[in-house]
Design brief:
Elements (H helix, E strand, L loop, with lengths): L2 H7 L5 H9 L7 E6 L11 E15 L4 E6 L4 E2 L2 H4 L4 E16 L1 H4 L5 H31 L2 H10 L4 E3 L3 H8 L3 H13 L3 E4 L2 E4 L2 H6 L1
Antiparallel strand pairs: 1-5, 2-3, 2-4, 2-5, 6-8, 7-8
């Protein structure tokens, strides 16, 4: 990847940052992955991954059996946490329809000799991790306080009353609802005229009914 491409894909890096990466010979380790919902990317422990276009769906698994599902949008990413903790986190990245993900050699970049550059990277990593953590806290706080039905409706309402997704399975994963339970909720709410689901699109129809739910 040349200087121009790096500057375009990572506008948060200044000229000195890019020169530092070029000096360390890391430009060849910045890789663009073009993903669809049929593709699976297995992130490497020493890399970070940033979504540069479209949306990505992330499945994360811990050694003790916990499972998380997060939707990443443009300029959000994963992989930074593995730099700070020893516990293994296994990730699977997939596109939602189509997306572009930038693979960054984060561990090697942190071994550069420029303290200023290292501090700059740490700041960016902590910012990205904070965004993901806040997103997960909001999701799980809502999950605790709502029934599955209420949680689904709140999810759609907070996204403008409609939502397009890649598959029912992906949406169920994202909401941490069992697929069969999710399908029963959709069928029940559709029969009552609360919402409509057509292929990979769902939309709220009756906001008064939602208030009662």
């Amino acid at each position: 990847m040349n200087r121009k491409e790096m500057a375009r894909l990572m506008p948060e890096l200044n000229r000195d940052d890019i020169e530092q990466l070029m000096k360390e010979g890391l430009e060849g380790e910045f890789i663009l992955h073009h993903l669809t919902k049929k593709d699976a990317l297995f992130p490497k422990d020493d890399k970070a991954y940033l979504v540069k276009s479209g949306d990505a769906f992330v499945h994360a698994y811990t050694d003790d059996g916990l499972e998380f599902h997060i939707r990443l949008q443009k300029d959000e990413g994963i992989g930074m946490l593995n730099i700070f903790i020893e516990e293994e986190l296994d990730f699977i990245l997939r596109g939602m329809d189509r997306c572009t993900v930038l693979e960054i050699p984060i561990k090697k970049a942190l071994q550069t000799t420029s303290i200023k550059f290292i501090l700059s990277l740490y700041e960016k990593m902590l910012s990205a991790m904070s965004i993901n953590l806040f997103k997960m806290l909001k999701n799980y706080a809502a999950k605790v306080n709502y029934t599955n039905e209420q949680y689904l409706l709140n999810f759609i309402v907070t996204r403008g009353g409609s939502y397009r997704f890649s598959s029912s399975e992906d949406l169920a994963h994202l909401l941490h609802i069992d697929l069969r339970t999710f399908q029963r909720i959709i069928r029940k709410l559709s029969d009552r005229g609360v919402l409509i689901k057509e292929k990979n699109f769902i939309e709220i129809l009756d906001y008064d009914a939602i208030q009662k739910i």
